[in-house]
């Protein structure tokens, strides 16, 4: 068979008329190939799109050419093999007009007879009726060839067609690039800048695939292969990075986000290696890396749709388009499938279609329709209702179980009811967060350590798993919150509820106040560790740990998770309106143990709790014992300088008026005892008659208690407190 060019046939595909021979040694010369012995070993191509895959050695293609064109009409050999290292054309049978063209990416660009991305070799117009053309191809990459003999007019038409297709595709990329730059300028979101970079990478990939890079930089041999390798893997890394922003994997899928980061680093590393030393690595590893990246991203897309992440359907559609398109292209590249058009244009078209799908999702973000907005709004609402239902069912199951028993346990029922009340309270907070009207109760100045203690007490009244919490207060006892006390207390309680361990492991919570000396800002620093590995700040878990972030953000603070394993910790930094408390001289005496302040009574007493909290806020050191019998050991261990101030209580759980007789004989003259009561029938005179040094009614704790204690201490000889000189004014 031969390639015949005449008035009727202006173009001939060499694949249908040529033959080939593979020189695996790569050492045979043109003279060896043109010998009678090797001519017989050439095999007919019989394919318009010759595909050889990865070939070790040289591929020789032989074709007999017969030119019978009208006078003045010339022909050329048109070869499309832009990434081949060697493309040589020989016509040994032509004596006067012999062609000897040695081209390819590994050869200087000036060797090309016509400066064009493809290899175009003009054929002599005054040639014998029949002559032989040899084409030698060598490449480290899969070899796929378009080889045609055609007239110059046919060549011009084909070049124009390729130019129009390239211009159309690049025009779409340019529009997408301009749009993403506009969105970045408008929103300052890095996702749009990242995607703009990805679009530039796609353009570089297209130029490398079609041979434009060497045309633009003709002095740099091998640059085209390096640009292709770098662009392919860099685009894989950029698509992965873009995924992190598009479906917000850092918040929605934190574990998958770590996998994506590893993929980004891996592809970026390979991109640099393949760009610096393409000849040292097999191209098949590049293909595997790119395909594996797309496959993993497709699985991520399916999982994100399953988790109902916003815009996941757009992302899944884009992933399916690119994965299918790239799979067909890669199979064609390695000779598994035969789609000439898709080999030439399919990869760029697939990437552009994917970009258009992403762009549709981006447009939807900025111009949401009513139905779409309702769908997005309903998603977190559905997740929230699901979580609420699960938590309520747990408590109602406990209540149902207790009532099914012959003797229900009152404590279990009470705890379940308190948990239901806590759910209702958290719902109130969520409503407040949505409407920017968080609760502002308990805004009176509150000691920070007491607030943390109260949060811990409230947590333990709800805890049904015997959790262990270790509170580390730092210097919080010396600070007093002036605002947001209620929500900060709620925040501490939620941290305990959501991060406590269901094993015997202890959750540590460190709290301290940092002072920025430059601007005077106070920061409440909270660190909770070790965090359970299952806890994340995911959006779909809104009623749980994700709720913590909204609380912190409502306080204009920062929240983050750091570390791994036992070092995994939740860190919150919250600006607070707070003031430092100065200890009074009387409080300093209790801290030095010169004055020992003892509270005697039942711990569940509201009156005792109120008194203790008040004294703690004033930085008094306290000793709390349950019964009078425990007081004797304290009195026996006293040193010579110690003075005792003993507080007894009278309410529905304590009967301090009758307890005094049990230890009054053991008191020294420097000791004193006060009665605090909510009994309206008790009076100062009656308390004095019982032997008390002072009496404070429950409504006077904050106004009278410290005054009475100070007065008693000043009356003691040798007291460290200054005496108050009283003057009588004569009239």
UniProtKB/TrEMBL annotation:
What sections of the sequence does the record tag as coiled-coil?
none
Give a single Pfam family match: 7TMR-DISM_7TM
Keyword list, A-Z: Membrane, Transmembrane, Transmembrane helix
- Does the keyword Coiled coil belong to this entry? no
| 7TM-DISM receptor extracellular domain segment(s) | 19-149, 163-359
- Transmembrane feature ranges: 164-185, 192-215, 227-247, 259-277, 283-306, 313-336
The molecule here is called: 7TM diverse intracellular signalling/7TMR-DISM extracellular 2
Q: What is the lineage of its organism?
A: Bacteria, Pseudomonadati, Pseudomonadota, Gammaproteobacteria, Oceanospirillales
């Amino acid at each position: 068979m031969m390639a015949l060019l005449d008035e009727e046939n202006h173009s001939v595909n060499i694949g249908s008329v040529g033959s080939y021979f593979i020189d695996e040694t790569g050492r045979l010369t043109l003279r060896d190939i043109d010998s009678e012995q090797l001519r017989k070993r050439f095999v007919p191509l019989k394919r318009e799109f010759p595909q050889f895959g990865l070939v070790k050695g040289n591929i020789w293609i032989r074709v007999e050419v017969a030119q019978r064109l009208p006078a003045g009409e010339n022909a050329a050999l048109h070869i499309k093999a832009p990434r081949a290292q060697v493309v040589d054309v020989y016509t040994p049978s032509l004596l006067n007009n012999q062609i000897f063209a040695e081209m390819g990416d590994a050869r200087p660009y000036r060797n090309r007879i016509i400066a064009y991305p493809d290899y175009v070799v003009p054929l002599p117009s005054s040639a014998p009726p029949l002559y032989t053309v040899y084409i030698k191809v060598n490449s480290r990459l899969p070899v796929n060839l378009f080889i045609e003999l055609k007239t110059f007019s046919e060549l011009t038409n084909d070049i124009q067609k390729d130019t129009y297709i390239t211009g159309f595709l690049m025009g779409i990329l340019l529009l997408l690039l301009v749009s993403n730059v506009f969105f970045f300028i408008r929103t300052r979101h890095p996702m749009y800048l990242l995607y703009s970079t990805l679009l530039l990478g796609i353009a570089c990939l297209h130029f490398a695939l079609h041979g434009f890079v060497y045309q633009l930089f003709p002095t740099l041999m091998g640059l085209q292969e390096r640009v292709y390798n770098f662009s392919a893997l860099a685009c894989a890394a950029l698509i992965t990075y873009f995924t992190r922003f598009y479906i917000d994997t850092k918040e929605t899928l934190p574990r998958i986000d770590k996998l994506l980061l590893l993929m980004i680093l891996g592809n970026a590393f390979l991109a640099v290696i393949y760009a610096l030393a393409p000849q040292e690595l097999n191209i098949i590893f590049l293909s595997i890396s790119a395909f594996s990246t797309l496959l993993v991203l497709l699985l991520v897309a399916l999982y994100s749709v399953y988790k109902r992440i916003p815009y996941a359907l757009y992302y899944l559609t884009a992933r399916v388009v690119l994965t299918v398109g790239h799979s067909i292209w890669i199979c064609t590249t390695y000779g598994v499938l035969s789609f000439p058009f898709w080999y030439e244009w399919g990869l760029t078209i697939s990437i552009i279609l994917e970009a258009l799908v992403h762009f549709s999702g981006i447009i939807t973000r900025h111009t949401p329709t009513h139905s779409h907005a309702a769908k997005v709004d309903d998603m977190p609402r559905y997740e929230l209702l699901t979580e609420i239902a699960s938590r309520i069912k747990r408590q109602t199951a406990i209540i149902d179980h207790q009532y099914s028993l012959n003797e229900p346990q009152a404590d279990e029922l009470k705890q379940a009811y308190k948990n239901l009340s806590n759910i209702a309270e958290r719902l109130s907070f969520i409503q407040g967060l949505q409407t920017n009207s968080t609760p502002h109760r308990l805004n009176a100045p509150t000691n920070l350590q007491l607030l943390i203690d109260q949060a811990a007490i409230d947590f333990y009244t709800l805890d049904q798993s015997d959790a262990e919490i270790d509170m580390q207060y730092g210097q919080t006892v010396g600070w007093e919150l002036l605002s947001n006390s209620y929500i900060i207390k709620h925040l501490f309680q939620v941290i305990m509820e959501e991060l406590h361990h269901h094993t015997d492991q202890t959750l540590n919570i460190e709290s301290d106040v940092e002072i920025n000396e430059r601007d005077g800002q106070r920061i409440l620093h909270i660190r909770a560790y070790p965090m359970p590995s299952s806890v994340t700040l995911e959006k779909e878990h809104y009623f749980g740990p994700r709720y913590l972030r909204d609380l912190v953000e409502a306080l204009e603070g920062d929240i983050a998770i750091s570390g791994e394993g036992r070092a995994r910790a939740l860190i919150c930094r919250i600006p607070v309106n707070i003031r430092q408390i100065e200890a009074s001289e009387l409080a300093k005496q209790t801290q030095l143990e010169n004055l020992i302040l003892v509270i005697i009574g039942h711990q569940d007493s509201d009156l005792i709790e109120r008194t203790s909290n008040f004294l703690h806020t004033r930085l008094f050191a306290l000793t709390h014992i349950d019964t009078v019998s425990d007081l004797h050991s304290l009195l026996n261990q006293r040193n010579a300088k110690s003075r005792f101030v003993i507080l007894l209580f009278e309410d529905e759980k304590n009967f301090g008026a009758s307890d005094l007789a049990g230890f009054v004989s053991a008191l020294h003259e420097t000791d004193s005892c006060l009665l605090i009561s909510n009994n309206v029938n008790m009076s100062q005179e009656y308390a004095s008659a019982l032997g008390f040094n002072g009496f404070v009614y429950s409504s006077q704790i904050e106004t009278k208690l410290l005054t009475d204690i100070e007065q008693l201490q000043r009356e003691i000889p040798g007291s460290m407190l200054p005496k108050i000189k009283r003057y009588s004014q004569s009239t």
